[in-house]
Amino acid sequence: MKWTHRLSNKSIRFKLLVGFLLFVIPLQLLLIFDNYYAMRVVSEQVANSNRNLAALYMDQIDRNLEEVDKYLRTTVAFESDLIMLDVPKEVSSDDYYLAKINLFNKLERDINTYKEMDYLFVYSSVNKEMITNQPAGETMDRLKEVREGMVAMLTEREAWPKHAFEQWFPYQLGDDYYISKIQKIGNVYIGGWVKASKLMSPLGLLDMGPEGKSLLVTSSMEPMTGMMPDNKGDDYLQVSTQSEQGQFSLLILIPYSVILEHLPFLQRIWYVVILGALIILPIFYMFLRQNILIPINRIVTVMRRVRDGNLDQRVERHPVSSEFELMNDVFNSMVDQIKALKINVYEEKLLSQQAELKHLQLQINPHFFLNALNTIYNLAQFRNYQLIQDMSDYLIQYMRFMFQNNLKLVAVEDEIAHTRNYLNIQAMRFQDGFTYEIKCESAALMKARIPPLMIQTFVENTIKHAITMDETIALLVDIRLYEGGSSSYLRIVIRDTGQGFTEEALEKWRQEPEAEHHGDRHIGIWNARRRLRLLYQDKAQLELSNHPDGGARVEIRLPLRFEDQP
Fold this sequence. Notes:
This is HAMP domain-containing protein. The chain has helices at 2-6, 12-78, 81-84, 93-110, 140-156, 196-199, 232-235, 256-259, 263-307, 322-363, 366-381, 385-403, 412-430, 454-465, 503-511, 523-536, and strands spanning 119-124, 129-132, 169-173, 176-185, 188-195, 213-218, 236-242, 248-255, 410-411, 434-440, 449-450, 473-484, 487-496, 541-546, 552-559. By secondary structure, it is of the alpha+beta class.
């Protein structure tokens, strides 16, 4: 009766034993099915993932080809020099040669806009003359071979109707495949020509294992880049995407051995775990009961009473392991203090959550990001490619720092680099309306550690509140060593030449040093003070004022650290 009572369905022992058996036995039956199912799911997931990647890369290729196609159609519609190539050159030799020169110059100029192309060409079938750009670094023999190949391609298609040229098509020249597109006006052809392997360069980022392949293939599955494996049907997972712009496809081949390489090892691990569980179950249960279940039950009993509001309950002393003895003592001590700490703990948790939330909200400013993109857009309208590259580089470095600034402290040089990227973006945006200067007293201070975004927060405040369209605003960031008593501090001064802080803001800052800020203005400054207090307690100082010569002045003094000290 006693044993039956202990193994009733309400007993923890009964539940542990039965639950363990109910888990192990069905697991053995399902293991075989699970093996096949896992193989199928993994294959499908890999196929779907690579299908999406293939579609993404093919879409990129199609967009590039579509831009070239638009250029060809526009040239056919509006380039009057093409008409001169549609008549024999003997009719008007001067006009004919002038048209050839104009077209050659146009192709040389426009190929720089469509860098995805190797050649842009114009061919007059009446005069049997081919005009192309001359790629830098291409030998004359190779240029002659390519031009002869283009002429041969056009000669083969001379009798084709006009609608046959609506898509890009592959053409084999020697051992290489090229992708070409032709627009026809009368007896004049204008087209684009690119080596198939050049279109495959973005796919070098795909990781398909040492034996995986990515190929461009014709409509008849003839590989245009690389070699097709002999046993691709049996040993490779095949994923293909048809181009919407041309008569070719992107084929990705991934070896099944790479996809499923870890499954056999995992299967063996499962067998070992199941067999070991069956052997040690009885021994483990007795050990578990004596050393864990009973002590836990005592603690749980008292915890339920405390949960119900009875804070006078305590865990009684019994012969238990040192860990449970410590748990009992700690629990009893916690119950003694819980009344006094309850309110403070909840309030501190709330403050911490609010500060963290505001900090995260400040990390990516949507207005700043949209303004940066708008600046890039405006530069693109003027085709100022160098400034577009500079702007994009600043924005990339800025976002890279923002996405990894979960570190507690960063080096001053990293914070300055990030701030400089931000200021460069703003300088390009406001041009003559904004200038800045960043100075550091010594190279050694560049290795000091400070909270991330500490300088950038105050710099951003200047951009948001000081810059106007009426006058030029100058910003200065000055970093120096400050000796305060027996300690060394890092002093950071951020000053601008704007209107400065309002007296209302400064008065509120002085009168409410412990209050949380709930307004929309200067929220970054209030959060910065909160972060300094959490990291340094009362060892850091933050002072806001207006400079005698005008403009806002912020001074930060931080304990000098060269590593992430607690």
